[in-house]
Design goal:
alpha+beta, two-stranded antiparallel ribbon, 6 helices, 21% strand
């Protein structure tokens, strides 16, 4: 282990210096979050329909009577036999927060292309309980830039020209309900999703961190939690 070992006094001096940077980062993050909340809103005009456990539902129905809706765009395409391992890693963070989000007038739902019965079977296998809806052929996934035609180039992902040819990509979108209107407030993709993965944030606090250097791609180590 090639690490610098020092006295407790020297460590405390280094830790205190880092604390000043951490506080500056926290202040910058709070300012960025305020700018995110201040983004303009756009009305969702299309009458999307989703398959849910309660039956066919509109986007407004997915709010479950609350004012805010968080949608995690879970990669589970029509030809998938199981959910994406990376999205499954993210979804492991969702169950415990449902009651806390509800206390702040917010609902979190996963939405995927695959049929509902397939999604619910996978949810049962993984031991999850959060709401999951199927967008099917409603156009919702395509309009929010997470589903494309397999093998075909073009389109935009993460606000830039899409370079890959996959059919499915991850993302997260937030919505506000204003009476009968649904307003789109924010969407993020790729590394923008890091903020909702508690496991990554815990690893970032450790001496070895995420340990992804030298891997074929950063998340090549991730398995569905029942496959480790």
């Amino acid at each position: 282990m090639d690490r610098h070992v020092v006295s407790r006094t020297d460590w405390l001096a280094a830790r205190t210096a880092l604390l000043a940077e951490e506080k500056a980062f926290t202040a910058a993050r709070d300012a960025l979050s305020a700018k995110r909340r201040a983004l303009p809103l756009v009305a969702v005009e299309k009458p999307y329909r989703f398959a849910t456990e309660q039956g066919e539902a509109s986007l407004a129905d997915l709010f479950a009577g609350r004012s805010q809706l968080i949608v995690y765009h879970f990669m589970y395409g029509l030809d998938y036999t199981e959910g994406c391992p990376s999205c499954s890693f993210w979804a492991d963070n969702f169950d415990g927060v449902q009651a806390h989000l509800a206390a702040r007038d917010t609902t979190l739902v996963c939405i995927s292309k695959a049929p509902l019965d397939q999604l619910l079977a996978y949810r049962a296998r993984m031991g999850w309980h959060f709401p999951w809806a199927s967008a099917g052929a409603s156009g919702f996934n395509e309009d929010f830039a997470v589903s494309f035609i397999q093998g075909e180039p073009g389109g935009s992902y993460n606000y830039a020209p899409r370079t890959g040819k996959n059919a499915e990509y991850p993302g997260l979108s937030t919505f506000l309900r204003d009476g009968t209107r649904v307003l789109h407030s924010y969407s993020t993709y790729a590394r923008g999703l890091d903020m909702v993965n508690g496991a990554y944030h815990l690893l970032d606090l450790t001496p070895l961190g995420r340990q992804e250097q030298g891997l074929p791609f950063p998340m090549s180590w991730v398995r569905r939690h029942d496959r480790y």
